[in-house]
Amino acid sequence: MAHxxxxxxxxxxxxxxxxxxxxxxxxxxxxxxxxSAVLQQxxxxxGALDGLIAEVVEGHVxxxxxxxxxxxxxxxxxxxxxxxxxVHSFLT
Length: 92
Fold this sequence. Notes:
By secondary structure, the protein is an all-alpha fold. The chain has one domain: Up-down Bundle (Methane Monooxygenase Hydroxylase, Chain G, domain 1), CATH 1.20.58. It has 4 helices and no strands.
């Protein structure tokens, strides 16, 4: 998974931010915060995780699906780009 090694630091930074957000959810629960505060923190975690997933999927498609030698107007390359857009719109 060369793409994850290439972007390793960026992905690890995302994971650390997600971990911080999860810690905030835990603190909110321990401090008996209101439902809306807990839900807001949990939703932020979900959004951050979805962003991480979208980024890894995009890297996978670009590294393992799209032929680097293909022309930009190649139907398969266009379909892969559309897939990336769909994943991003669905997850982020």
